[in-house]
Amino acid sequence: MLTRVEPDLTAATDDPRPRAIVIGAGFGGLASAIRLSAKGYNVHVLDRLETPGGRGTAIVRDGYRFDLGPTIVTAPQVFRELWAAAGEDFDKDVTLHAMDPFYEIRWQDGSSLRAHADPEKTRAEIAKLAPDDLAGYDWLIRAAERRYHFGFENLGRRPMNRFLDLARVLHIFAWYRADRSIHAHVARKVRDPRLRMALSFHPLFIGGDPFHVTSMYALVHHLESQFGVHYAMGGAQALADGMANVIKRKGGTLSQGVEVDEIIVEQGRAKGIRTLAGQRLDADVVVSNADAGHTYTRLLRSHKRRRWTDARLHRTRWSMGLFIWYFGTRGTRDMWSDVGHHTILNGPRYQGLVQDIFQNGHLADDMSLYVHRPSVTDPTAAPDGDDSFYALSPVPHLGFENSVDWQAQAEPYRQKVQDFLERSLLPGLGDRVTASHVMTPPDFGERYLSPHGCGFSIEPRILQSAWFRPHNVSEEVPGLYLTGAGTHPGAGLPGVVASAEVLAKLVPDAETVR
Q1: For 478, phi and psi rounded to 5 degrees?
Q2: pTM metric for this prediction
Q3: Which of 18, 31, 412, 442 has the most other CB atoms within 10 Å of its CB?
Q4: Which strands make up the sheet holding 369-372, listed edge to edge?
Q5: CB atoms within 10 A of CB 293
Q6: pLDDT at 1
Q7: Can you say whether residue 435 is alpha, beta or left, with left for phi > 0 and alpha for psi between -120 and 50 degrees?
């Protein structure tokens, strides 16, 4: 249940520094608060949930800890740089565990592939699966490094709020054929359909259709091989708690259980916020880590918008929804020894299933699952001898005509997930299940105020990326800034943390505000 009794926000308002209000304590909001604290602001973070972390929060059921959202940390340097910007040491607050293998992908024909930290081990897996495609894989890895330096280190970590910012790099987009989808990019050199899936599925982790999102996302292969895949011990909640503690040590304030109802605009400028309970809090700078769609359609509902109108947002293509079953199992720590921390379990279709999810809005009978088993790495996630899991199935969002009736379908679909797991990965599962919790797109809409119950905000297609996304400095209201998955550079932990880095380059230093 969400906390609905708001704390008094008028306490401790005598800080002489200019105030920055951050709406939302997701990872983008927390990172922005740290960045603004380093720029000299008195930062106040307001969040409607019971703990910081947004989609990276956790719940505990009968001694099982379930990470509700992100489960991996890639590009850990963005976190270390964030802490360093505040004069802090990331590794004193958070313990990262390097995963090896990163994950295992399994297909219905019994074949599998493990992605390893050692590139030669990964090449051996590729050669075992499809030896004729090894040269194509090597080509993809070389191309991924070039796209990484341009797409992540350059484009993804600097402002893209002026059209000139885009115009200056259009020729590079053209050179890299950013108009080509990531699946089409892989398919140029790789023929085996299993490998095409294994080398193109990554955009699904940030809400993108691999058959339509830009080939720039091939950069993920370099990101993983160069910097590894990690798990934050204690889960994503531990990472969020570490960020919250940095904010507090820098003199900032976090208020949980506070829902912002409106951004106050006076004399053409953002001047503060009003909460659902009617409290007003004034600010020199307002940052919204709420979904960009919610920010513009709800929080700015009283202000006339020029670009991000309701009609424009209605035409926008949104990421898919998510069905997630969180469950504990009794006495299984030594069972299923071949099942690691991260498993991608494929159903019989790839392109057809993706089309049902993103294009047709159809809840298919078949499915593919991402299965998370953190207790094999972090025993604190479950009671002794037990396991905690989550199984994630991409599903259509709620914006389609005749969208899925999840009130009727949630339990039947959960049973389908359980049956699929029992047949393909976890034999005997039904007799071992203890704690159980389900989240569907309506839950994402209610808990995270996510438009259409989407899992990852606006889908990262080529014409919904960079300058085409809602800007980090609002196009609608001076003094308002956006951070998080719905703005530049996009979703995923590296993306939302980078959005705060970009934002900090746009917000003036506190000493120049008054």
Answers
A1: -60, 145
A2: 0.95
A3: 31
A4: 112-115, 103-106, 342-345, 369-372, 387-395, 321-329, 433-439
A5: 23
A6: 44
A7: beta
